[in-house]
């Protein structure tokens, strides 16, 4: 089978990880990445020996790259013409401008959560609505919090049916290395309901969702608490069994040493994962409690990497590579090594 | 009427504020405070000119105070013998040891949340169970989070009846100036259910409560989200009206500029409140959302000062100063200036 | 003697404290404060019962204040016409615009550190160059770090002569309650030399100064380390004696419990100082070390309040109220209660 | 040549990195690692497929490992008997106890900075005193700050001669993932002089050193400012040229995007370095300033990995693998890939 050709436009926090993720897919080819300026990410790419070809959004800036000795393969337009699908991870709002180019050169594109929903034909999640994305021209991925949240809610929904969720998002306010945003010794609350709850309802329209978001001055992983009300009473045992069977959910406990979001980051570093990234959300077994007919639990969202698998699922959908979400997510998981850990720990 | 004589044992974060709060009560007399060592708090007391008399837990340490010129009035035993009731704000666990002295000298005592429930006859909250504390020898106050949480749940419960709450506590991990505890760039999750949910059920046994607590590396104010299920459907308007009528709940909004816990601390400083303290919890009007038959909202808990009013209510109860919680809390509020602000803003 | 009439334009972090400071001066009258919008600071002023009259920079916004019931006394122009001198604490850059009004209405003005040096006739510090400010029309105050730094360097310079300083500024990145700026889990370094070193040389041209500034994600107090080279060898004892004699320098030690900047904030809160502010810089006795012919020490800069005394000194200079810095600073200190603490601790 | 056999005792933050570093040395063999409990680090080792054999300090705990399916190769004693040299990275103070075992089984050992100097024959730094470590039985490495600091001072000293340094250490207070220590919204100052200055003088006795250390609530990289006084006047150009020629010093600038310690951590992650580690210290070109006859500059110390190269140098010394520091450090650098980056950027 011919490999699907992929470009990544915008080589920032998400773009770098998308490139690495596509690179690992046996049935895809990463043709190159595009960016604007010799950022630290581009300098690191260069220091690594240019594992990916670099294209420039604006060829007038080529001189800056030449001066540093960083090789440039061509322009964004050159890159677009070589691929089947573009993963657009440009800063929020730029994607809408880029779309004009994708239109013109007739490539498919998948946008990240920073763009407006209207940019795409389908607001997409690999597990919750894969089929809706098949053969579509433009997809938009859910944001990091929504992606991880939906994994857990969809997991329960498929087994038991979910009517309603009320969430509290304890949001990390910046990524490690961010100097353009930050918060110091303060919690910040957003107007409710949070957009993540609204987004969940767009993807899973049969679920009623609402919630409150509070920003916290940390950099490793959002934590979300979820109160989920099922069509039937869901016990802790039922929920746990469902969560443990999901390849993209790691069930952990404080007794094992996973004391919080920073433990998970440390663990991923110690695993030797590139950049200390983790694709799975974590779910604390000892956070699960029953409340009336509802179930409550807490998950950790590794914001830098969590959307990578679902974005790659999106390539599979829009390129009609697999016909069901089950097949597609299994393929993505296989190439990314997701779920292998399940076989090493007896739980 | 003769004033009730009060001692404060343990002049730390809580003890200083208890002393100041009792000092403002027209029907109480602060006889003195007791502590162990010339801490910064004691040095500040001295620099202020000793508005309160100081007694020593251990007279063998008197030399340290003499050297600094800080006047000592007598020993802890001297102090105990002069008062009707002791507010024990010694570090957690010390209160149990102090209780032997209170037993021996036949004084009443009110312990703070750090002690075990078994230390007291009644686990006490000024609004939720004042009557249970009347004429009791030993009371224990709810902790800061539980005190503020109960204010809001009791407020709804009295108007509409509450069956169940599921809470998420976003806990500040240290107070300003703390160097003996802290967390750096990490969220930390506790095993569920949180003790605050269990404590709420002890005080309000007709309510089912559970919840998850996450520690965050900040110093100003916990934020709690509450999903409360009423005996009847509670709308946002109903909840808001109830909250606005509670003297110890400030209803605020992000549009006014109250963006989070740090805004409230800043506001209290700008009000000229001693130490920048606030006795009221804040409740964000724009956090209130309905979910199924439940109502969800977020409150801010000013951890250093929030238990002061309810502790003073406790003096009123154990000394039988008022016969109902309504009368007692009104008296405490009057002397502490709580609720005056309601008259200045037209809401 | 007729009191000097003062206005404060810009009622933010600095403006509020300038207003409070002027209010306490027996020989000055605070006529009013001006601002733009019903910020939290203005709401707090209202809740306190309007101890100061409020004037509006833009009368078209009066409706917003009327709606909240906040009384407005008049316009900025009305205010300007009633005073001798304006303390301009508008956000950086706005002062330059305001200056046109001060020109037109012929009032003197003192600008804060956020404005360019060229805005004023004299770049001013109460201790280091009071005399240069006498009868000048426009002064500009040194910034918070520079103000505190110069106090300590000028103190040594007057006693022993200083040739050179090399400083490291460990800068707090935001004030408590700030949501418009912040840094999360990161140190940020500025290009050297820091502007504070350059500013010191403008005020004290006989001293060579350079240094490095690093931003840290905290809110209470900058810490500066200083390596100062004297015209003669300065021993630890010599330096200590000089520092102890300065009214605006508090000599503290870690053994007393002053473990860092947060201890000082806590101490000021416990003192009952409004807003938990401190006018004095602190200097750690146990940080002083000798290095070759130089002396090294660390100071704490309480960024919100440290410039208030020197700004009030500025009023005394530009209004020719005192003819020497010694007399002027003594007057300011007396009214602000600075130095009283020296009499209570035997050191 | 026969490979030198190495054990790592204590598989924590440092131990993991020592194991990885030794593993990469062509002339060494990592026989195994020893630890006590199934920590997250051990669990990660297991999930990675046990690239290193695991030995237990206490065989009575083997059941805990069996339960998790984690294979155990033998006891600490078994391990010791198979190796030439032990890298002891047990928690501070435990090394002294372990030394009795090393004595008994006649192996050489290298201790980390947490132990007392008296534990070893030589207090060691690969660049500054390699020769002193040759054929010695016990070495102790300098701590992370001292290791990095000495790199830069030794670099200048070898070229120009250094008489004196005065340092300010802006210390990160915890590592990512640490929950057992932390600081929240506070700077903390230590009594001067800092132990790092004293340690520098032990290693480089001809240099006079002093300094002040301030802890900051962050996790990525200490920053140290150094005021160094040479035997001759050292200009910025002279210093820069020296620093650029040092393989373990990366000269960076804020203009390139290296805004602070967190940029360096991000860059190392983006390079794909395991755990996002960096062996080199960074030195900001635009921090270098001249002051009198001295030079001032700022360096970044990546605390988790910085001592790894010098510890491996220590193996080379105590095992007499190379006879000069120049040869030994070159070998270590080659195997760790240090200095390769110099060839990719034209500077």
Strand content of chain A: 15-25%
Shape by Cα distribution of chain A: globular
Structural classification of chain A: alpha/beta
Q: Give the helix level of chain A as a range of percent.
A: 25-40%
Name the CATH superfamily assignment of the largest domain in chain A. NAD(P)-binding Rossmann-like Domain
Give a topology summary.
The structure is a homotetramer of 347-residue chains.
Chain A: E1 4-9, H1 13-23, E2 28-35, H2 40-47, E3 54-56, H3 62-68, E4 74-75, H4 76-80, E5 85-88, H5 94-105, E6 108-111, E7 122-124, E8 138-141, H6 144-160, E9 162-172, E10 188-189, H7 195-203, E11 208-216, E12 222-230, H8 236-244, E13 249-252, H9 261-270, E14 281-284, E15 289-291, E16 294-301, H10 307-318, H11 325-336
Short characterization:
The structure is a homotetramer of 347-residue chains. The first copy, chain A, has 347 residues and is α/β, with parallel strands linked by helices.
